[in-house]
Amino acid sequence: MVGFRWNARDPIFRVRGFSMAPTFYGDHRTVSCPDCESETKISELRLAAQATPARSIKCWHCGHEIELSRDPNLVNHEPGDLIQVTATSSLAIGDVVAVNIDGRMRVKRILGLPGDRVAVDQRRLLVNGSRLEAILEATNFPSAAPLIDVDVDRRRTESRWSPAADASNWARSKGHWTSRANDGVVDWLVYHHQAVHQHSRPSAIYDDYPCNVDVIRQLDPVDQLAIAVTLASAARVEVAFFTDAGIRVAIQTLAANESRTIRIVDAAGLVPLDAIAPAVLTAQTPIAIRVHDIPARTGDVVEGIQLRALIVQRSVEYRLRQRDSGANYPRQLGANECFVVGDNVPISVDSREFGPVPIDDIVGVVSRASPDTHPWIYRD
């Protein structure tokens, strides 16, 4: 972090790097894909460290090769996020904090507090037997990392969604799916994932970070999925999620024009496979959606259903990388120790490398700041 200005209470900093992306970003360029209009943030810090800066990047969403120097209108330069650090005597698992590490202030997330047990299961990090991302989602933690977009259907010429039934009421036009009313019969739409970096082959969903354009590594599969939906009219929505243990279904009612994110943690227990027939879910087809229109009044004629937005997303999942040693796990944190991690799991330098940090080195909890909310801030 770079110091920005101090007030009488709490310091304000500007984030430099990408170790906490997608929660906070340092100085970056935002590049817009001319094909699908998806945006990619590229770290200025990492670009400056490259001996030969990349001339192009591959769009994380559609795979289009974006020439960085071709059109300056495609590139916007943006400063790092502003954050405020507030001293506190009370810390919780999941808090985003400023930590003094080797004389430099860094932003990390607390995975474990004094007395907690940090363990590893198939390289996933556990605290007291639970995954950190599961703790954050179950408690709707206010500073949890934002979800990462995997597929934005309206940006695709050819959708990755398709009806499960051969004779379907679903049809797609101008980036929107519409289902005609037909005697109350409602079909499942199934998502078919493709790996952009593997020539769009069918694939499970992996922990790709769109901002890590220069990172070459082995990706890991993810299972904490979500879907963001917007409907033109009030409806009851069923979302089926594939898991290794079976199918889980979340059922929610949305108002007209309401946007809502439905996560796998919202789903109930396992359901029989025939409960979502003819949809077949696998790791490569991990989500299906079915929508039941709700008439405004009894006897009203339902003309159809329109999905105005359909976005597949994933949570940040905390784990050891291939290079991290698992020899020190499980470990019980001492009376003065905290285990911290970065939200940009592949690149963050944190307790997975240098071990627990003294709790006295935690300066305070971090929150987003801006000139709008802090009028005393000015740009030099």
From TrEMBL:
The residues forming a coiled coil are none
Q: Per its record, how is this protein called by name?
A: Signal peptidase I
Q: Which reaction does it catalyse?
A: Cleavage of hydrophobic, N-terminal signal or leader sequences from secreted and periplasmic proteins
The record's EC number reads 3.4.21.89
Q: Does the keyword Flavoprotein apply?
A: no
User: What species is given as this protein's source?
Assistant: Novipirellula galeiformis
Q: Which GO terms describe its biological process?
A: signal peptide processing
Per the record, GO CC terms? membrane
User: Listed GO molecular functions?
Assistant: serine-type endopeptidase activity; signal peptidase activity
According to the entry, every stretch annotated as the Peptidase S26 domain falls at: 79-138, 332-367
